[in-house]
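wait is this the right file?? whatever heres the structure
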């Protein structure tokens, strides 16, 4: 048995175990970016094909524009958007899961603005939800908590608290949570920081310096020895923090190009990490060695450290994070090529192209993998180490009225920014629409 296979045994044993140690979050079907187990892996049985409006449960035109994922609790679906030429208005909107009707909408004046265009993030941070509240972050610096009826419980202006937020192409780090704490990552140009606040009242629990690098990734809690580390990824650096105190536990810098994919936990102390090539596609070989499986462990002196268990030989990532499912890892590059890698030892199983370049993070459900394309396509393949394409679906034009359909190109077209799952339903998000498919 190889060393890599031996070390990987715990993560394979944990492949079907939820990583959430918080009952009030585990009850929810999609409480944050990448869902309840933080891997985008769900046992739900989902639709395979959708070809007409008859396959749509409903379609809702959303106010403003947003790139965040929906979050779901009970019969509520919650999203964020921004509006105005300078992103002056932040919007939290709650829809009825069964009908798509608006339950309530909360608008706030953003703490700071920027040109509302495709060169900067637009409501990219995904909110979080639990049994009591919804907490949302807007890239202008607003952090607020609402109850399930849309009433504001508390609100913070992070610009007033900690100064101006300037970041290349804006912020996109989604919120992370455990039972009683919200984790906020503001990786701005000057004095970036990581902030932990109490869910109950929004007060600070700790604040520590950020990474000081370019990043559009999200913080992720990774289980380590029955506890967890808050792992952050930015170009050239991975860092693990103690979620209770903010102490920097370890730092790893033998990596590059890891600006966007979020770390994906696969078991005790292990997570997948993705990295990309440049816009021209050059340097793929160098980038591939920054894609792989990382393990957190203690060294001889009892200090934590991180190291690659294996690195990819060819696979790179794009905007989407890697996917772990049933002992296999899947990476999707800028050209839409899916690389299937064996989790135990990093051996490539196949490399096949999807119908489109993939921007949103994929997920697995019911023995199938769903990949969401830049032009609105959803490619569905069979899970496993042999490539088998099952369906290619497009967004359904006749599910929209003529005015909304004609407005699509000007408002962001059919780019699928995010997807969420609840039971047998898929929720697909474009800039100004949410589709529910059952």
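ok assuming it is, sequence goes like this
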């Amino acid at each position: 048995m190889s060393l890599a296979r031996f070390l990987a045994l715990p993560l394979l044993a944990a492949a079907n175990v939820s990583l959430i140690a918080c009952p009030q979050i585990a009850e929810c079907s999609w409480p944050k970016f990448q869902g309840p187990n933080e891997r985008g892996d769900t046992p739900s049985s989902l639709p395979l094909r959708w070809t007409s409006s008859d396959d749509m449960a409903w379609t809702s035109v959303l106010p403003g524009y947003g790139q965040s994922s929906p979050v779901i609790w009970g019969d509520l679906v919650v999203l964020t958007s921004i509006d105005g030429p300078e992103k002056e208005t932040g919007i939290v909107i709650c829809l009825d899961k069964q009908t798509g009707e608006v339950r309530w909408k909360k608008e706030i004046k953003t703490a700071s603005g920027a040109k509302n265009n495709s060169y900067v993030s637009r409501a990219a941070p995904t909110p979080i939800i639990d049994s009591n509240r919804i907490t949302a972050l807007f890239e202008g610096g607003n952090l607020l908590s609402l109850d399930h009826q849309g009433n504001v419980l508390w609100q913070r202006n992070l610009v007033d608290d900690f100064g101006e937020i300037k970041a290349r192409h804006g912020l996109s780090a989604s919120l992370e949570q455990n039972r009683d704490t919200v984790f906020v990552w503001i990786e701005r140009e000057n004095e970036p920081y990581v902030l932990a606040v109490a869910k109950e009242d929004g007060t600070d629990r700790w604040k520590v310096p950020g990474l000081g690098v370019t990043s559009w990734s999200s913080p992720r809690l990774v289980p380590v020895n029955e506890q967890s580390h808050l792992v952050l990824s930015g170009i050239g650096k991975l860092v693990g923090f103690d979620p209770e105190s903010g102490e920097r536990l370890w730092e790893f810098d033998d990596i590059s190009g890891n600006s966007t994919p979020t770390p994906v936990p696969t078991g005790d102390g292990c997570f997948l990490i993705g990295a990309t090539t440049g816009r021209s596609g050059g340097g793929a070989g160098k980038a591939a060695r920054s894609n792989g499986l990382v393990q957190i462990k203690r060294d001889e002196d009892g200090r934590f450290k991180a190291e690659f268990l294996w690195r990819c030989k060819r696979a790179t990532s794009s905007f989407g994070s890697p996917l772990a499912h049933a002992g296999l890892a899947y990476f999707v590059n800028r050209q839409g090529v899916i690389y299937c890698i064996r989790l135990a030892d990093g051996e490539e199983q196949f490399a096949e192209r999807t119908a489109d370049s993939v921007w949103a993070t994929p997920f697995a459900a019911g023995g199938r993998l769903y990949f969401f394309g830049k032009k609105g396509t959803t490619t569905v393949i069979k899970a496993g180490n042999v490539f088998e394409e099952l369906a290619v679906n497009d967004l359904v034009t006749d599910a929209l009225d003529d005015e909304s359909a004609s407005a699509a190109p000007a408002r962001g077209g059919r780019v699928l920014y995010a997807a969420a799952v609840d039971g047998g339903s898929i929720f697909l998000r474009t800039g100004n629409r949410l589709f529910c498919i059952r």
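The longest strand covers residues 76-83. so i think its the right one actually
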